[in-house]
Design goal:
Zincin-like; binds zinc ion; 5-stranded antiparallel sheet; about 25% strand; globular; about 550 residues; Immunoglobulin-like; 5 domains; alpha+beta
């Protein structure tokens, strides 16, 4: 009680001090109402965890603070969510956490204050967002995706998909793609919309390639540049999102640097970003992480066959002769760049600030009168620009420290040569949609990674795989069999989500089964047979 009287006194005293104009010119005493703030502008984005929403308010004229209102799922009334006071600092973002699933509608208005009078700006337009479609698996087992009949455009929060006719599209494409995009922004610290060269959505072209009139789906080339990327059908979250994230990585890069910085730098950035995004999702959103790929798969693909061959010549040498890097890595200079980005990230705290320096050097170079756009820059010129960019950004000795750092990090940190021999960790994944993988060498339907999968109450949707096999690949799916390890308890569910049966069998007929749940904790094989499976033959 005494305390509250004391507070009141202080408030009155302060109000008097302000009114008396003792704080001088900063508070002109004449006009006794504050200027009306402009109408606020609000953007909302969903967190990668599927349970949070970040609200960003554009800088608003005359605002002393902002009041955010929310209409929660099932309610028809707006209630106060949060007031952001300026307090001399810019507070224009707020993250609402631990939200339950459903649609949230937000609006915000700015206020200004003077002499304890508050003047309100107009409410912003409302912004709605559905939180926690919870899992990136189909909402119901009946949602099996679809095959495009004509050229199809799907616009998401960050991307525009441009999909050829006759391509299979997974359920919840937009949620999956945007979730991966957000993870990539989180790990790179880059906001693509703030890019120097583009400020619009990245276009994702999905098509089969001429050389690919076979049963295979993803053996065609993929490519990324500027604000467009090209990927093959099964790279759209059928087998994984690995190629999708890789090519998006190039698009991220090109939002900030106009020119190619060489294989070591550009491919290094794309591959290292893939791994960080996979690690980030494995921790924050394991269901989506499983759809992207295991971080170990990235390491496996970037494996060096012989570190000593790499150490034999300087980093600068490999930057200038990227083609020769195949002497020590199956993926050439990608493997070196992948490690170089890891070194920059961990030793200097970031692996992207060279973008700006490189962009400046590159732009200066191509504006010289002797530059011939037909010929472009030679590999050596590009490498020299990149080396200068690294030294300018991180210090002259930046490249000198790389090999010694690598020697203490080469094993464990970047290697995963036992990836396919190990038990794949799905222990923190709650739901996954399995697909047949029409890689050029095989078309198996199995959980990704090694033969064995570690699980903990894992739901696997198989109706999309059945649809894919039947409608997209023309297979007879009338006698599909699920193979699991002995001792695995499997619950079978129909398309309405009703439990059909609980079985402990190594061979489980899948007729009428839309999803299964591996009950409890354990390790098991998980593959589907009963259709025409080819193995290790080029079709
Ligand atoms: Zn690439």
């Amino acid at each position: 009680m005494r305390n509250s009287i004391f507070k009141k006194l202080i408030t009155i005293l302060l109000a008097t001090v302000f009114a008396a104009g003792l704080f001088g010119d900063a508070l002109p005493a004449k006009a006794d109402t504050a200027a009306k703030p402009s109408r606020a502008k609000l953007t909302v984005s969903a967190g990668a965890d599927g349970k949070s929403v970040t609200l960003s308010i554009a800088k608003t004229k005359n605002a002393a603070g902002y009041k955010i209102m929310v209409k929660k799922p099932g309610s028809d009334k707006f209630v106060k969510l949060k007031t952001l006071k300026q307090d001399g600092t810019e507070k224009r973002t707020y993250t609402a956490k631990k939200l339950s699933a459903g649609e949230y509608v937000f609006k915000v208005r700015a206020y200004s204050k003077k002499n304890s009078k508050t003047v309100w700006g107009k409410y912003s337009k409302t912004a709605a967002l559905t939180v926690g479609a919870a899992s990136y698996a189909p909402n119901a087992a009946t949602d099996v995706g679809y095959i495009t009949k004509a050229k199809t455009t799907i616009e998401t929060e960050y991307l525009i998909f441009d999909i050829d006719p006759g391509i299979y599209v997974v359920p919840q494409l937009a949620a999956k793609a945007d979730g991966i995009f957000r993870a990539m922004e989180a790990v790179t610290g880059l906001r693509v919309m703030d890019g120097k060269y583009h400020d619009y959505k990245i276009t994702v072209h999905v098509s089969r390639y001429e050389a690919q009139d076979t049963a295979a789906e993803n053996s065609g080339p993929t490519g990324g540049s500027d604000d467009e990327i090209w990927i093959a059908p099964s790279d759209l979250f059928v087998e994984s999102g690995y190629a999708f994230a890789h090519e998006l990585g190039h698009a991220f890069n090109r939002e900030f640097t106009g020119g190619f910085a060489g294989t070591v730098m550009d491919e290094g950035f794309a591959t290292y970003t893939e791994m960080l995004a996979a690690e980030y999702l494995a921790e924050h959103d394991p269901d989506l992480g499983a759809i992207l790929c295991s971080p170990d798969l990235v390491k496996y693909n970037m494996m060096l066959e012989d570190y000593e061959v790499m150490y034999d010549r300087s980093v600068e040498y490999w930057m200038k002769h990227a083609d020769e890097a195949y002497d020590f890595c199956g993926n050439g200079a990608y493997g070196l760049g992948f490690r170089l980005m890891g070194y920059l990230d961990e030793s200097f705290g970031d692996y992207t600030s060279w973008f700006e320096t490189y962009d400046g050097l590159y732009t200066a170079k191509i504006s010289l009168p002797e530059y011939d756009p037909e010929e472009g820059l030679t590999d050596k010129t590009v490498a020299n620009l990149a080396i200068r960019a690294l030294k300018t950004t991180y210090g002259d000795t930046v490249l000198d420290g790389f090999y010694s750092w690598m020697r203490s990090n080469e094993y464990g940190r970047f290697d995963a040569d036992d990836y396919y021999d190990r038990c794949n960790a799905f222990a923190s994944v709650s739901a996954y949609t399995v697909y047949p993988f029409y890689y050029w060498a095989e078309n198996k339907t199995k959980l990704p990674g090694g033969e064995m999968t570690e699980y903990s109450d894992l739901t696997v949707f198989i109706a999309p795989a059945e649809f894919y096999l039947r409608e997209y690949k023309g297979e007879d799916t009338s006698a599909l069999i699920l193979n699991v390890s002995a001792g695995t308890t499997v619950e079978l569910y129909d398309a309405d989500g009703k439990l059909i049966d609980t079985v402990q069998s190594e061979k489980i007929p899948l007729t009428g089964v839309a999803s299964v749940k591996l009950v409890g904790k354990g390790e098991t094989v998980f593959n589907i047979t009963g259709y025409h499976i080819y193995d290790y033959v080029y079709h």
